[in-house]
């Protein structure tokens, strides 16, 4: 299938807003056409006052006396002034409405796309780069739509109308005015591609700088602890200098386009006055007609003179479109198959059959066969880097196995919809992420319709209610980004409550007790032992405490499941 160009991509996202686009083009066209009628009236006034025969567009004859002529022209100019003011207002509001709708729709579609992309894609780009695509690249579309895209339609009118009028008035003199246009088009065309590459390089450098700044701020505690502030400052300064260099290069190309456009159009304007003046002296053109003609020449050159600014906006917009389009073109390594069906969980039995998985060339799991019985607590043990978290990621379908299959109640996870899978399971990651919201808001993320009573019960089950109840605002306590005003254990317990609020059929926990004290760890393990009566629980753990309530213990080592518990665990490890 042929890929879309950036402009085709923009048109596809503008299509739902066709009426807004038509309104913006109409009012901008009217705004540009109205002042083009002024030269006709001013030229007629000059000829009338000089005793010449006066007509408008060769069709409408104005009164013969100077007083009547001035009165008619004044009324005409008043009408034009009112029309110009009205069109200016509606042009601004219509284009603003169009750009708002376009950016809002594009940004929403981009966020939806990012939410569906698998973790490997997010890890490849990084949060800083994706943040640039969502914020900066979509924001660059505003001027592109308002000053570049919408104006590209009206430029046809701005060029076509004065060009036609000039040909009607005096085609020979029109050829003189047009003579500079081919040279101008050649010069601009030669510089446009260079400007585009320079802008794209600058945007890429800006993304790298944003990513580096974000990482340095996220890791400020580590940077200060190891006294690496100077090294990071030098690194960021070097990237900032690189960005300034790229932007200076793009500005240089913009200046070159500007100088060629203004120089050539000024030359054309001078030639038009020179040749027009000769025609007036020879009696082949009236003074009023020359004034009108040169005014039309000025209108004809205006789009080209504006082009310097427009081409910069236009090219910046194209760069942003290409970067956004790149995200939409990405395919996720984990997505619904064409014939995917909703997951039907009845018991909660988990099976891994000949499962293999790796990151690139690095093999993590090989030929794993494992059976986890429903409504039991299974603990997965192993050294760091042995593949425990990868195994849990396969169960949550954050990744797909490179070989073999993972089944829930006999259903291959690759054949069920992601939405139905993730609505029936819950995952507590190793690093609990706390959002800038209240405690209740953080928990409700998993179940927006949850009542306060449900939230309280989930907090009790997660052994979090005691410390929450002591807070002055309780569940309505505002938390800082990343849970800055919580201890590691408190943040982890809120993450567990967030998982339990959904009452999942399968609960997956990645070292949930690593940041907890012994007493709290024992309490949570006791809670999980109680909860297993109504759900299947898989827990990754290091501490012996986690094994006390386990029905089965699995040890992952050297890419395989190599150990079993003493409780009739159905487990095989293939060679």
Structure explained in plain terms:
- The chain has 575 residues and is an alpha/beta fold.
- The protein folds into three domains: 323 residues, Up-down Bundle (ABC transporter transmembrane region fold), CATH 1.20.1560; 163 residues, P-loop containing nucleotide triphosphate hydrolases (Rossmann fold); 67 residues, no CATH class.
- It is 60% helix and 11% strand.
- The protein is built from 18 helices and 13 strands.
- The strands form three sheets. It has a six-stranded mixed sheet with strand order 8-9-10-5-11-12, with helices on both faces.
- The chain is elongated and about 110 Å long.
Short synopsis of the structure:
Helix content is 60%, strand content 11%. The protein has 575 residues and is α/β, with parallel strands linked by helices. The chain has three domains: 323 residues, ABC transporter transmembrane region fold (Up-down Bundle), CATH 1.20.1560.10; 163 residues, 3-Layer(aba) Sandwich (Rossmann fold); 67 residues, no CATH class.
List keywords for this structure.
575 residues, alpha/beta, ABC transporter transmembrane region fold, six-stranded mixed sheet, five-stranded antiparallel sheet, 11% strand, disordered C terminus
Structure annotation, total helices: 18
Number of strands: 13
Assembly state: single chain
Helix content: 55-70%
Cα shape: elongated
- Name the average pLDDT: 78
* Low-pLDDT stretches: 566-575
Helix/strand structural class: alpha/beta
Give the total of domains. 3
The CATH superfamily of the largest domain appears as: ABC transporter type 1, transmembrane domain
Tell me the span between the first and last alpha carbons. Answer: 43 Å
Largest sheet: 6 strands, mixed
Provide the spatial order of strands within the biggest beta sheet.
8-9-10-5-11-12
Which CATH-level-2 architecture of the largest domain?
A: Up-down Bundle
Using only C-alpha atoms, the radius of gyration works out to 35 Å
Provide the CATH topology of the largest domain: ABC transporter transmembrane region fold
* Portion in strands: 5-15%
């Amino acid at each position: 299938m042929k890929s879309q160009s950036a402009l085709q991509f923009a048109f596809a996202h503008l299509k739902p807003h066709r009426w807004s686009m038509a309104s913006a083009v109409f009012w901008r066209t009217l705004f540009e056409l109205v002042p083009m009628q002024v030269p006709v009236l001013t030229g007629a006034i000059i000829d009338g006052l000089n005793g010449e025969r006066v007509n408008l567009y060769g069709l409408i004859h104005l009164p013969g006396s100077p007083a009547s002529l001035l009165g008619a022209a004044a009324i005409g100019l008043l009408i034009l002034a009112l029309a110009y003011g009205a069109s200016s207002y509606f042009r601004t509001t219509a284009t603003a409405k169009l750009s708002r709708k376009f950016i809002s729709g594009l940004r929403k579609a981009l966020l939806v796309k990012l939410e569906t992309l698998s973790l490997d894609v997010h890890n490849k780009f990084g949060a800083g780069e994706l943040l640039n695509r969502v914020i900066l690249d979509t924001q660059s579309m505003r001027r592109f739509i308002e000053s570049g895209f919408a104006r590209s339609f009206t430029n046809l009118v701005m060029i076509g109308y004065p060009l036609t009028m000039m040909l009607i008035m005096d085609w020979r003199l029109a050829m003189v005015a047009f003579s500079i246009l081919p040279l101008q088009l050649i010069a601009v065309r030669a510089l446009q591609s260079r400007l585009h590459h320079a802008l794209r390089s600058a945007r890429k450098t800006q993304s790298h700088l944003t990513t580096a700044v974000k990482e340095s701020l996220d890791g400020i505690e580590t940077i200060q602890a190891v006294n690496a502030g100077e090294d990071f400052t030098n690194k960021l300064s070097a990237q900032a200098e690189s960005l300034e260099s790229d932007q200076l290069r793009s500005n240089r190309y913009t200046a070159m386009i500007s100088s060629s456009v203004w120089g050539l159009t000024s030359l054309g304007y001078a030639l038009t006055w020179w040749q027009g003046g000769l025609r007036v002296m020879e009696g082949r053109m009236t003074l009023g007609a020359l004034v009108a003609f040169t005014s039309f020449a000025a209108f004809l050159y205006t789009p080209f003179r504006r082009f310097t600014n427009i081409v910069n906006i236009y090219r910046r917009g194209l760069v942003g479109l290409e970067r956004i389009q790149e995200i939409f073109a990405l395919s996720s390594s984990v997505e619904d198959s064409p014939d995917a069906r909703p997951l039907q969980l009845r018991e909660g039995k988990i099976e891994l059959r000949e499962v293999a998985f790796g990151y690139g060339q690095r093999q993590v799991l090989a030929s794993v066969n494992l059976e986890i019985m429903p409504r039991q607590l299974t603990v997965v043990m192993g050294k760091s880097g042995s593949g425990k978290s990868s195994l849990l990621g396969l169960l949550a379908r954050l990744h797909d196995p490179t070989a073999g299959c993972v089944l829930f109640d006999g259903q291959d996870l690759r054949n069920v919809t992601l939405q139905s899978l993730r609505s029936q399971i819950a995952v507590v990651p190793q690093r609990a992420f706390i959002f800038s919201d209240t405690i209740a808001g953080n928990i409700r993320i998993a179940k927006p319709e949850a009542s306060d009573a449900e939230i309280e019960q989930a907090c009790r089950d997660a052994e979090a209610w005691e410390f929450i109840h002591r807070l002055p605002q309780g569940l309505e306590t505002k938390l800082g980004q990343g849970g800055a005003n919580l201890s590691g254990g408190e943040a982890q317990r809120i993450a567990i409550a967030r998982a339990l609020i959904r009452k999942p059929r399968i609960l997956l926990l990645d070292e949930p007790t690593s940041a907890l004290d012994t007493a709290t760890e024992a309490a949570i393990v006791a809670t999980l032992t109680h909860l297993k009566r109504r759900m299947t629980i898989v827990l990754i753990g290091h501490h012996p405490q986690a094994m006390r309530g386990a029905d089965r213990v699995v040890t992952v080592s050297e890419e395989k499941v190599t150990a079993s518990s003493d409780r009739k665990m159905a487990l095989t490890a293939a060679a």
